[in-house]
Amino acid sequence: MIRIRDLVMRLPSGGRPLTILDGVTLDIGAGEVCAITGPSGSGKSTLLGLVAGLDRPSSGSIAVAGVEITRLAEDALARFRRDTLGYVFQSYHLIPTLTAVENVAAPLEIARAPNALGRARDLLDDVGLADRAHHYPVQLSGGEQQRVALARAVALDPPLLLADEPTGNLDSATGAQIIELLLALKRRRGSTLVLVTHDQALARHADRVVKLHDGRILNGAA
After folding, report:
1. Is 34 helix (H, G, I), strand (E, B) or coil?
2. Fewest C-beta atoms under 10 Å: which of 28, 47, 187, 211?
């Protein structure tokens, strides 16, 4: 599903380049649950963003589902993201002026899917929020907002799910609920799941744990 080769990411910092990722090579199979762990500043979120096509690497290549995304033009990259992946952010990234059901329906409407609102209501029911469909994000708890974000991420049945610290802003009990829900959604759709986490309880559910340190994969992690 994912093939990464010699990935390097450098950013300007104080007049000199700062290396965030340094020669990362990694394969992740279809249907796999892969957890990426490591200390703050090790490059975890940067790696996930590059796989999502949210940023461009300094060098190296990333292929997802056979498509080398590092070579795609912006329009093609946007279509790739729409058709191939769902992304779950730590800070939810819900649109504050839309209700829960409208947030979930948004990607369906962009894709011109039929009956977007009806489908969104079904997805909210899947995550236990049917009775909160018409509430705005500010009216929802952190756990409820993350459940809306999960429903939105799987709305188009993407073959790849990416999650960046999905339990990072939640208490342990709510985090455990989100873990179970995320894994259930992944199993139901047969998708590949790659997640960045500091949460050891979440990492234990992965088929494989990849450890990053100073922008490099530790020996044996891949």
Report:
1. strand
2. 187
